[in-house]
Amino acid sequence: MLTKEGCNKRRERLWASLPDSVEWVLISNPRHVKYFSNIWLNPVSFSAGQTVWLHLERSGNATALADNFTLKSLSGEAYVDETVSEIWYDGKNSVENRDSKQAIALKKHFGTLDLRTGAVEEDSLAIAALETIQGKPELNIKLGDVIKFLRRKKEADEVEHLKTCMRACEAGHVAALEYVRAGVTDMDVYRAVHAAVLEEAGRPCVVYGDFRATNAELPKAGGLPIGYTLQDGDLYILDYSVILDGYRSDFTNTIAVGEPSSDQQALMNACIASLEAGEEALRADISCKTIFDLCSDTMVAKGFEPLPSHAGHGLGLEHPEPPAIVANSTDTLLLGDVVTLEPGNYIPGIGGVRIERNYLITESGSENLSHQRIALR
Amino acid sequence: MLTKEGCNKRRERLWASLPDSVEWVLISNPRHVKYFSNIWLNPVSFSAGQTVWLHLERSGNATALADNFTLKSLSGEAYVDETVSEIWYDGKNSVENRDSKQAIALKKHFGTLDLRTGAVEEDSLAIAALETIQGKPELNIKLGDVIKFLRRKKEADEVEHLKTCMRACEAGHVAALEYVRAGVTDMDVYRAVHAAVLEEAGRPCVVYGDFRATNAELPKAGGLPIGYTLQDGDLYILDYSVILDGYRSDFTNTIAVGEPSSDQQALMNACIASLEAGEEALRADISCKTIFDLCSDTMVAKGFEPLPSHAGHGLGLEHPEPPAIVANSTDTLLLGDVVTLEPGNYIPGIGGVRIERNYLITESGSENLSHQRIALR
Description:
Two copies of one chain form a homodimer.
Chain A: H1 4-17, E1 24-27, H2 30-37, E2 53-57, E3 62-67, E4 82-86, H3 101-110, E5 118-120, H4 130-133, H5 143-150, H6 156-179, H7 186-201, E6 206-214, E7 235-244, E8 247-248, E9 251-256, H8 262-281, H9 288-301, E10 312-314, E11 321-325, E12 338-341, E13 344-347, E14 351-354, E15 357-362, E16 365-368
Parallel strand pairs in A: 1-5, 3-4
Antiparallel strand pairs in A: 1-2, 2-3, 6-7, 7-8, 7-9, 10-11, 10-12, 12-15, 13-14, 15-16
C-alpha cells in the first residue's frame, strides 16, 4: 500500500518537473492516478475497466472525479482532499451511460476554476473532458512522458509495496519446485502456483506470465498455460508476476521435468553466470547497454549464443517499463530504479532456460528483491 | 469465444442504428472493441491496462490500431481485415511512451482517408486522436450510448460464451458447498472457489464478488474476503462472477455455517419464493418495475421487509449493466437480454441471505443459465 507521505513526495517531484506557469494537472492514466493518490480500482471487482480522474493543484489540493459506483471498488485509502462523485446507480433507478459520468463530474468541479493554465494527459484523457477544459490546458507539455520518467525513481513506500508482491511471488516458486513433475499439465502448475500466491498474499490478486514447457523440439514457448502434459526431459520456464494494487513482481526459474541432461545443466549454469555478471555491475549511472553486454558476453564465454532478446527491464506499475536493458539501449540506470535481469537461451536439441531476479538500484549498487531458489530441481 | 459471424451481425446492427451520413466509426471502449472484433486484451497478461482501437467502415473494412506489444496479449482471434501496429518495443532498443502509439498508428492509417463523416466514442477516445480526426467526426452522435443499447440483445455467440462462464461459476459453487464450515476463513473459501473455477475453465480467469459471512450482529457484508474465520451460526453469502474474455457470470447462494436456525431457513425460503415469483414473470416487453414489485411483494408476503436494493440487473461485458430491475425502473425487458434476479434480505438477529440466478430472455419467456444448487446446506 502506498502512503500519504509517498504520494506527497511524488506530487512535489511532479511540480518541480513542470513549468511554473502550470497551476493544475488533470491525471487520467489509471497508473498515474494510483501513483499520486493511492486510488486504484481493484481489477478483481465489478468496476474493473472503469477509471477515476485526479485533479491536482500546485497549491496542494487534490480532487478525485468518478461515478459513485466506481468509488466503491477502490483497493485502499484515497489520499485526496475532496471527491466529486456523480451518481450513476443508486439501486432504485434506471441508469444512463456510466462512462459519461466523469466528464459530468469534471464540469461541475471545474466550473469553480478560473482560466488558469494546466496540463492534461492527452494519451488517456477522453475527448468528453474538452467541453470543460478547452483552451485551458497546455497541450505542448507531454504530461504522460513527464510522469513516466518520474516513475523510474521508486519512493520508499513503493519499494515496501513491491516487496509484498515479491514475497507472494516467492511462495508460488516454492510450490512449483515441489509440484512440477511428469504427468501434470502446465495448467495444473498454474493452479498450484496461484493457490500458493493467494495464501501468501492473503487477498485476491492477479498472477500472469509464462507457464510453459520447452524441450529439445520446442525450445522457445511463452504465455499462459495451454493444457500441455509435462514429460520427462522438458524444461518448464516459470516466469510470472504477482500484481497487488497495480505494482508487480517479475521473476523466473526454470525447472527440469525428471533428471536434467548435462547440456540442460550447462545451459542453466551459463544463465546463472550471465545473471551474476549483470548483477555485479548494477549501480546508478551505468549504461544499460553495458549491463546487456556483460550478460550477453558471459553467455558466449560459456559456449552459448548471445542473448536473443533483452537482458532485463524496469518494473513497477507497468511491465516492461524503462529502462530497457537491451543491445542498443540509450538508457542509464538511476538511483531508485527497480529492474529485472533475465538472461535466457533457447537451444534446439536442449530446450529453453531463463532465470530472473528483481533489483533496486541503491547508493551502494543494488539490492536483490527476489529470493526464489534458482535451480533446475 | 465470439465468432466472426457474430461480430458481423453486431456491426450490421450498428450501421443500421447510425445515420447514413456516418461512413466510419472509431471504437475505443475496450468492451466495444471486443464486441465488434473479438479483440480482448487478457487482463491476466503484461498488457493489462493497454488498449486497442478499432476503425470500422460502413463499406465493411475493419482495422485494429495498437502498439506491437499489446497485440501479443490478445485472448483469441482478431476478426479484422487489417492491423496497424506501431512498434513500441522490439527487445533491442530503448522505448518511448507506450500510450502514445495508438494515436501515431491512427495518424498513419487515417492519412489515407478523405474528410468523410464518422463517429467516435467521446467518453473513451483520447484527446491525442484529435490531431488526426479533428473536424471529421460527428460529435453529436453519442456513439457509446448507441453501442451500449445494442449490447442488450445478446447474439448466439455471446450466449454460448456466457454459458462457458456459467459452467465455471457453477464449479466454484459446488466446491463452496463442500468446503464452508466453522474454522475456515472467508479467504480460504475464496481460494477453494478459485481453484475449482480454474479447473473447470481450464485457463486463467478473474473471479470477483462477495465472499463474506453475515450473522445476527452483522447482517450485511459484501466484497472480497477479509480473513474472517467462519463460525457456527454465520450465513456465508457467495455472490461472485467469473470473467472469461470480458463476459461474465454472476450468481449467488448463501451457505449456513453449521445448522441453520429456523429463522434463517424462513429467510432463505422467502428469498426462494421471491426469486420464483420474478422468474415466472420474465419475458420480453414486461416492465422491469413489475418484476421488481413481484420479487419485493413476495418477500413481504413471506413476512420480511421489501427488497432493500435491486431485484436484478443486466449482465454481459459489464456488471451491472442495463436493464435495472429496481423500484423506479423505466426499463423494459428485451428479447436477448441476459439478466440476473437476486432477491436478498439482511435482518438483525438473523443474518443475511441472498440468492441469484442468471436468465436469457427468449421467445418463450426465459431460460435459466445458472444451475448451482440453491440451499443453506
